[in-house]
Amino acid sequence: MSSSPTPPRPRGSGRGTRRLSRLLVVQGIYQALLSGEDPRVIQTYLEESEEHASCDVDYFQKCLHGVLGNRDGLTAQLLEGLDRPLAQVSPVEQAILLLGCYELDQSPDVPYRVVLNEAVELSKSLGSNEGHRYVNGVLDRLLFTFRPHESRAPAA
After folding, report:
1. Rounded to whole angstroms, how far apart are CA atoms 101 and 6?
2. What is the DSSP string of 42-85?
3. Where are the domains of the chain?
4. Tens of pLDDT along 27-62?
5. How far is CA 116 from CA 79, 120, 121, 153, in A?
6. Whole-model pTM?
7. CA atoms of 9 and 123, how far apart (whole Å)
8. Angle between helices 71-79 and 57-69 (to 10 degrees)
9. I need a surface site. Which of 26, 50, 132, 141 has the fewest CB within 10 A?
10. Calpha distance 24→30 (Å, rounded)
């Protein structure tokens, strides 16, 4: 039996590509929060990473530019869900929360449960020990600000 070589996977296809896109976006937001660098410089830096070749490039660009281009507006909305001053939220959690707010607001094709789950998973891998609980709580409080039509009813 001969085995034919597996064809190369198209760039940015398959499972986990959006998760990888989100990871890169959070890194970019974090970099912007700490350095104030131009979004184009941040994008160029991230595009040179190994991970970029495997991410959903369109989603990466949409989210990165969406968050960084509307950071002030997203931050104002985020403040409504916080129980402490923004300065007391770590930059990692701020970056994850900003991406979560953006996705809830601008990606209606992504179910809110997916947005919350992805934010929690990013927090578990990048944030503080209990940061994922805080991120989940804040985004849960903001859900009806962004998506008043969606229900929290359990899935069937």
Report:
1. 39
2. HHHHHHTSGGGGGS-HHHHHHHHHHHHHTHHHHHHHHHTT-SS-
3. 17-146
4. 999 999 999 899 999 999 999 998 898 999 999 999
5. 17, 6, 9, 15
6. 0.85
7. 29
8. 70
9. 50
10. 10
Measure the CA angle with vertex 47, ends 46 and 52; round to 5°: 95
Listing DSSP states for 18-35 in one string gives HHHHHHHHHHHHHHHHHH
The count of residues in the chain is 156
Q: Which of 155, 111, 128, 59 is nearest to 139 (CA)?
A: 111
In single-letter form, the type of residue at position 43 comes to Q
Q: What is the assigned CATH class of domain 17-146? A: mainly alpha
Q: How is residue 143 written in tokens? A: 């859900």
Contact call for residues 10 and 72 (beta carbons, < 8 A): no
Q: What is the DSSP string of 103-125?
A: HHHH-TTS-HHHHHHHHHHHHHH
Q: What's the Cα-to-Cα distance from 106 to each of 56, 65, 84, 100, rounded to whole Å?
A: 17, 12, 25, 10
Q: How far apart are CA 68 and CA 32, in angstroms?
A: 8
Nearest to 79 by CA among 94, 67, 92, 65: 94
